[in-house]
Amino acid sequence: GLPYSMKEAGFPLGVLLLFGVAYITDYSIILLIKGGNLSSANTYQDLVRKTYGLVGYLILSTLQFLYPFIAMISYNIITGDTLTKVFQRIPGVGPDNVLTDRHFIILLTTIIFTLPISLYRDIAKLGKVSLISLILTIVILIIVMVRTVTFSPQVPKSENAWMFAKSNAVQAVGVMSFAFICNHNSFLVYGSLEEPTLKNWSRVTHVSVSFAVIISVVFAACGYMTFTGYTEGDLFENYCRDDSLATFGRFCYGVTVILTFPLECFVTREVIANVFFHGNLSTVFHIVVTVVIIAVATGVSLVYDCLGIVLELNGVLSATPLVFIIPTACYLRLSKERWNHSDNLISCLILAVGVLVMTVGFVLTILHPQECSHGKEMFYCFPSNIS
């Protein structure tokens, strides 16, 4: 979705916003641990409960449920979009074949892969799955970079492709926040350090976020430079169906998404367990809750198939408060520093930006939903159509 965010914001402003979101993510992750140290909390939920009581805890739990749940819906949409185009390249599989039906593919991958893997109780069993997913992500990045050089000359540049800023910049920040969010795992990673000190945590955070922003900028720039104003919410929707390298990329992408889906299911199930079952699910309830979560997410993704608006809504409604608003609000309440201390001033600024992005982004996304050309072959794939 990052190349799509460049189209929404305008490429120059989009790159600046990407660095801005990375800086805010970096700052808020460190701020979370500072808040945890001030309140003697060792989880995000514990921090918010000690700072804002039960109401704050319930709001955070709702957001921590919504973010991975909507992510699961987006992963199903991606699976349906990408794997159908992969199967179309198999000899003998025509447009009427069941393997080219996105509904069938989503149901098939859910029943065979995502549901069984999601039923694990121990998240550590997904370690190898995460490693495979990471390797495939690098492969996908290389494919996108290669196609920028080899395919972009075939794609005509859209009008105003290099405008500095465009009107949907706020929604673009939502998509970027969705890409960078990792606050819900921060305390877990902090506790895993050999020496969990603020200095060590800051160093780990700076290195991790720097690495992430480099990959993100390269991915966003290469994707947007290839397709400019024609960039779709799902970048692989832009490549032609007969593109063999892109087909391999789609396959890697589909596998990555299928392997990432269970991680999000673990988080949603844990939130439900903590809020309604005091953190413990019996074997029966573990299975029932897992099946219900996946069934609802799958049902929504079967009905709705436009990825761009899903990323925007999840960004502005879930990721933005988790990254921008809650960490800064907790720190400002706990801080013993003078009001004009740099941490307090920067926290106030980030909090204000977060509220602005969340409210304006939501209103604009509802009032002006983005067009979606799901499943259509792009016009530049037929050279005779390009004048």
Give a verbal description of the structure.
The structure is a single chain. The chain is mostly helical and 387 residues long. The chain has a single domain, classed as Up-down Bundle (Amino acid/polyamine transporter I), CATH 1.20.1740. It is built from 12 helices and no strands. Helix 3 packs across helix 4 (102-118) and helix 9 (244-276) crosses helix 10 (283-303). 43% of the residues are buried. Belongs to the amino acid/polyamine transporter 2 family. Residues 1-366 form the Amino acid transporter transmembrane domain. It is found in: Membrane.
CATH-defined architecture = Up-down Bundle
Low-confidence stretches: none
Helix content percent band: over 70%
- The average pLDDT score comes to 87
Span between N and C termini? 29 Å
Q: Helix count, per DSSP?
A: 12
Structural class: mainly alpha
Strand content of the residues, in percent? under 5%
Number of domains: 1
- Written as H for each helix and E for each strand, in order along the chain, the element string is HHHHHHHHHHHH
CATH class: Mainly Alpha
Largest sheet: none
CATH topology: Amino acid/polyamine transporter I
Rg for CA atoms: 21 Å
User: Could you name the CATH homologous superfamily?
Assistant: Amino acid/polyamine transporter I
Number of strands: 0
- Gross geometry: globular
InterPro entries: AA_transpt_TM
Keywords: Amino-acid transport, Membrane, Transmembrane, Transmembrane helix, Transport
Protein name: Putative sodium-coupled neutral amino acid transporter 11
Organism: Nestor notabilis
